Amino acid sequence: MIKSTESKIVTAAMLAIGDELLSGRTRDKNIGHLASALTLKGIDLKEVRIVSDEQDEIIAAVNAMRERHDYVFTSGGIGSTHDDITADAMAAAFKIKISHDPRAMKLLGDHYAARDMEFTTARQRMARIPDGADLISNVVSVAPGFILDNVHVMAGVPSVFQAMLEVLLPTLDGGSLMLSAAVDCAYGEGTIGDRLGEIQKNYQETSIGSYPKFDGKSYTTQIVVRSRNQDAIDHAVSDVRKMLSEIDG
Amino acid sequence: MIKSTESKIVTAAMLAIGDELLSGRTRDKNIGHLASALTLKGIDLKEVRIVSDEQDEIIAAVNAMRERHDYVFTSGGIGSTHDDITADAMAAAFKIKISHDPRAMKLLGDHYAARDMEFTTARQRMARIPDGADLISNVVSVAPGFILDNVHVMAGVPSVFQAMLEVLLPTLDGGSLMLSAAVDCAYGEGTIGDRLGEIQKNYQETSIGSYPKFDGKSYTTQIVVRSRNQDAIDHAVSDVRKMLSEIDG
After folding, report:
1. What angle do CA B71, B61, B172 make, to 5 degrees?
2. N or C: which terminal CB in chain B sees fewer CB atoms within 10 Å?
3. So what's the ipTM on this one?
């Protein structure tokens, strides 16, 4: 048995907001991006929810998540039209006021003035920020996201979501990195399953996943060993390889 | 104001299960597929959750969802390895027993016998089905999914998920179709937002969404009007086009 080293666990949840994700009109591209980025920071994404543009749904989801996790990240619903209700929903969830934020008004006002574009009521809607929130800068298209306590509210347009996350990442307090090693194997899960289960039992500090692929005729499997302890991974992988060479005969 | 016709509303939720979706290792392909398929059946997908391979998380999510919705669909965790715990989690969620189902044992036993493959303990794990469940046939790779009350448990491998859903769809009780019409517009949301909000107010029976696209320089918008009443859509779309031609000048 390999001794556990002290690990720092940081958890996160994501809330993707938008009818279009639930109707099939738009395929979400932000969840996978956030998942990969957080893994590189040692932050465990534990849960994702997708909800529609309905205030009660957004409030219930964000309140459930922000209680349980160190960080919450949201995508969607911070544009300039009537169906962009995320900022108001967040204010309601936190039971705080929302108004046209002077910093956001200046950012957006300057932006449109420089382009000789009218700063319409709709555009001013993007400056509605719950009181006391910090802004997340948007290098792509100006309109900011915001941070309320541990909740990070970002845009749904993937290029903007990614740009905002890029700004946020260095500010996040990461955890011990989750390390992993992958072993590709030519067998289906049914061939390796019993013995892989034994290996998992022997290395409790690791989480051994097996991911089947089907090519239309037969299954192959990728075995992924994850842990915050590299020694534990090395030992488990060594046993996995030994198992595979024994099956090879 | 257009009078509402009698609409039949059927709602659904999806639970995608798997550590690999939360680590970024795998990008989910099933959510969007299910969303599109349900929309075509007139079933409203109202909520999606992604959880890890942890029994408590799966139980909490499925119990929350099956209470609230007509249908629940799950993906992932029904393979043959130790990390495939969905069937056991479902049995625990429903507080019923789970055992090696004779129908599933026969299906799988015949399959492996015909291929001269050993019906290992791991493979037999795929026949573990909560007592009283109906099976969902798997024309791709035999191991069945199952139905417990309103919960439909399917594989995570996309080709298998899709094949199982194909079998299920004709058995589902669909609702009134959600109809939609899309209008592409060359303006960003800030230009159209105020007036689009007015149009939304005038057509309460429709849900008008606006979906910005950013090409790196400027925004365009797709306006989508959704309703179960075609007349309401036609009237709202007509007003949207009128608005756009007025902005065109």
Report:
1. 10
2. C
3. 0.92
